[in-house]
Structure formats: C-alpha cells, structure tokens
# Entry
Amino acid sequence: MNELHYQVDLLRAINRKQMERERMYLKVCQAAVGAFLYFSFDRGQATTLGQWADYFPFEVKDTRDMEQLLDAVEESCRLQLGDVIYPEKSGQDTAEMECLLQDSRTWMHFRTQVYYDEKGKPSEKVIYIRDITRQHAQKDELVYMAYYDSLTGLYNRNYFVRLLGEYLKRASHTGSIVSVVVINIDEFRKVNDSMGLVVGDELVRQFGSFLKGLCQEDIMACHLHSDVYCMAVYDPAGSKSVSFLHKAIQERIREPFYLEEGKEASITVSMGVAEYPEASDTALELINCAEIVVFKGKAEGAGTLHYFDAPVMDELLQSIELENKLKKAVCNKDFVIHYQPQYYAGNRRLRGVEALIRWKGEGGKLIGPTTFIPVAESNGSIIPIGRWVMEESVRQYAAWKQQFGFPFIMSVNISALQYKRDDFVDSVMEVLNRYQVKPAEIELEITESVLIEDFQSVAAKLRLLREQGVKISLDDFGTGFSSLAYLKRLPVDTLKVDKSFIDTVMTDSSTRVITESIINMVKSLGFEAIAEGVEEEQQYRYLHAIGCDVIQGYLFGQPLPPEELESVFSSQT
Ligand code: C2E
Ligand code: CA
Ligand code: CA
# Structure
C-alpha cells in the first residue's frame, strides 16, 4: 500500500514538474517577439505558440495545414519558402528567408530548425517567424537616402556620379557619346528673396519632378544642389544634340509654376552641356565642365544653351594660366598703382586722386585691372592685393602730403570680398594710424552690388568708418539698382556717375534727362557728384552747367605713375 502511495506521489510530482516546464516554455514563447510552429514528425502533429494568432488567421495542426503558410505569402516568394519550411526534404537542418505577405506590406522572417534522430531521420522541427516590417522600412529609407535627393525625388549627386561612371564605361566600349547637361534656374535667389524659402523649395521640387518626367532608358537626372540639376543622355543622336531636352524644357517653362499659397513663378533656365569623350572622360569633370559653361553662358544672358567645346576649353586653360601667374604676382608684389586726378568743376582745382592698380606682367608690360581683378575676386587673392593697394596708396599719400604740404583726397577702390571681412574696419584704421593720415583724407569706393548682397552688415561697417571721418563713395552709379528710396539709406558721401552716361550725354537726349535727374537727386540728398570718364571739353562744360561738382577723366588727366603726377601737385601750389 505504501508502495502504491509512493508511486502515485512520484507520478504526481513528475507530472507537476512536467506541467511547470510546459508552462515555462509557453511563457518563453509568448514573451519572445515572434511566432513558433513546433512539428513532431513521429506524430505528424503541429503546435503553434507565441504570437501566431497575431500573425496568421489560421491554425496549423498537421502537415496539410502547413501548406496554408505558403498561401499566406506573396506568390514570388512561395517557391523559396517551400524550401525554407521543409529543409528536411533536401537533408538540411536549418534554412531561413525574408518574405513579403499577401498584403504586400508585411515583411516576415522565417527560420526553420530540423532535429534528426540517431538514425538520421527527422524527428522534430521548429519554425520561428518574426515580423521585420519596421527594420525593412528603415533599411528602405537608408537606401533611399543613399541614392535619392529627398526634396526632388531625383537621384542625388553621389549616386548620379556613380551611374554616370557606368554610362561612360559602356560608352567607352561602344564608342558612343554621353552628354552631361547642367540646368540652372535663372535668378532663383529672387524667387527665394521675394516669396520665401518654402516656396523656393517648392519650385525646386516641381521643376525637379518635371525633369524626372523627361527621364527614360539612357536618360537620367539628378539634383546637384540648390537650384542646379544635372542630366545625362547616353548616346544622343550625335554630337551637340540635346536640343530635344532644351526644347522640352523651354516648352514647360512657357507656363508658370503654381506654388504654395496661391503664388506662381515664371522662370527661365540656363543649360550647359559637356560631352564625353570630347570634354573629359570622367564623370566629375564632365559635370564640372557643364557647370562652367552654364555659368559662363549666364553672363551672356539668361535662358541660354551652351556647349563646352574647344574655344571654351582654350579660354579655361588661359584663365587657369592667368590664375597661376596672378598667384605668383601676389607673392612678388608685382603691381604698381597709377593715380588719376579729380578736379572741382568750378575752379578746376585738384580735389584728389583715384588709385588704380596695374599688374606688372612679363617684360614689364602693364596689365589693366579689368583683366585680373575678376580672377583675383574669384580665387580670393583680392584680399592680399587689396591690402597692398590700401597700404601703398596711403603710404604714397602721406609722402606726397609731406612733400607738397597740402591735403587732398586719396580714393581707393575696395572689392566686395574686402568689405565682407570682419577685420575690414580695423585694418583700414590701422593703416591710417601707421602713416598718420587723417581719415577725412581717404575715400573708399564701393559698388552697389556689395550693398545689394549684404546690405545690413556692409552698411554697419561703412557707418563705423564714416563715424571716424572716412569718406565713402558709390562707384559706377547708374549701372545697378540705383533706386532713390534706397539711396537715402546709404551711408555714402559721394556718387560717381558712371562713364556710360558721360559717353552719350552729348548725343542722346534721354541720357541727358537721366543724368540731369541723377545730379539733381544727388544734390538734394546732400551728396557730392563726380562724373567719370570725361574726355571732351563739351562734356565738361555741360556737366558743370548742370551742377556736377567734380570731374575725372582723360580730358583733365589720365591715370599716371606716381612720379609723373608730381607736376600736377606742383601746379597746385
Ligand atoms: P573704375 O573704378 O570705374 O575706374 C575708372 C576706370 O576708368 C579706370 O580704368 C580709368 O583708367 C578709366 N578712365 C578714367 N577716365 C577715363 C576716360 O576719360 N576715358 C576712358 N576711356 N577711361 C577712363 P582702369 O584703371 O582700367 O580700372 C578699371 C576698374 O578696375 C576700375 O574701374 C575699378 O573698378 C577696378 N580697379 C582698379 N583698381 C582697383 C583696385 O585697386 N582694387 C579694386 N578692387 N578694383 C580696382
Ligand atoms: Ca573707382
Ligand atoms: Ca567707376
């Protein structure tokens, strides 16, 4: 009897242990993220655990039910999933794959483990299924970010360069041409400034999606940056034949783009084309060449199509050569300054001189500033050059003042880049201090473009300089923006009426009307008016009659090297 009791207790204990273990497994399966399918080959029975019910609307109890798993996934994955859930058919013990469910949204990861007995017969298997939709979406997003531009949906620059490299490789085998077209929205800044960045972005997006519509086999597009796009055409019909793109684009932009908040924008675009193999054989260089021509073309007017061809290449090489020579000249200080006198129109007495730089080129030939100042501005060497001009002209002024004993005004041209530097005001004051020159004896010439670009910060610097007594003059007046309202806010003392007005003032009556109204306006604002480029006596008399204060030009004196100017000063004493 005791024996029997003992047996029963033992069984109960075993049973309890068994149930505890089962409960534990069940809990583990439930806690795990995923669904499990346990299958016993001996019994031909299946059990599902974990999140099965969340994943699938059916139960699996035997081999036949397992087939429903295959029906649950997208058709394209079905065949492979058959191998994955029955690895024993090919003697494997594990197999896994990712597949999309019938809803085309949910990604599942399947992993099967088969257990074999000592005779090598499959005894049990476990299929572990996990929902990996989120990981997939993240991966998709990363892939998207790696290849596409999020604003326009076009390829991004990096991926485009890679694909263009493939075009080039293919073209090198077949002897084809590849055209690389850079497209830029003209005066995009104006859209941004007048309508705001959000609307500007919307325009970039809409134009980008229009370009996307032009893509097809062997034509692709990317968003390079801001308002610049690039397209590549594999083997267009011969050289210089992307006019079909030009035409399609021109047709589209005849209509305005309808943007947010009821705003609309009409645009023109400029295009530059570089062709493989003529312009270059690398993707980056081709894009570069096309960019060079698009921006070169812009200088000739908006809405143009230009090709990077032999003349452009020559010009580029020349400008590279010029740039290198200029760098050397900056090191050796191979420059001189000529000074052009300015006279009061009334009594013809000297008002001052304008410092005009020249570059001492090879063999001592002097090169004019219009050739090299733009290059110096684009490569930054205008900063050391400008510093040298400032220093040298102030030094020269101090020497003249001591020699001839009377003050006058030294006018110095200053580039936009110089004004933009934080140390600009200090550097001017430092030079004046060093040579003991009064601020009122110095005048800085500025062009309107500087003010338009960065009005607040440049105006603040000019105010600081004027507070110290430095004169400010607005150069080339009449060629830019020149609105009266904005003139009033300018911290300037003097206005230089551009030579282009003086040139035609005697022959063109409308120029006369404009010139007279400019002079009247200048006077009413209390500024001083200087006419530049006065070459004829008649021009001088007319300008004097309409109230122009100061005359500068070949009529009264060309720019001269310092030693030749001494007679000018002597005649004043
Ligand atoms: P700008 O400031 O308008 O200078 C006047 C230009 O007109 C000078 O040319 C001068 O020689 C020329 N000119 C003066 N009177 C007459 C005339 O009656 N007839 C004709 N045909 N021309 C006349 P330049 O010296 O070749 O200078 C050209 C430009 O280069 C200057 O135009 C100025 O913008 C720039 N520049 C000159 N020196 C410097 C400098 O040191 N720094 C900077 N940033 N720019 C400079
Ligand atoms: Ca000037
Ligand atoms: Ca000028």
Summary: The first strand starts at residue 35 and ends at 40. Residues 2-31 form the longest helix (30 residues). The radius of gyration is 40 Å.
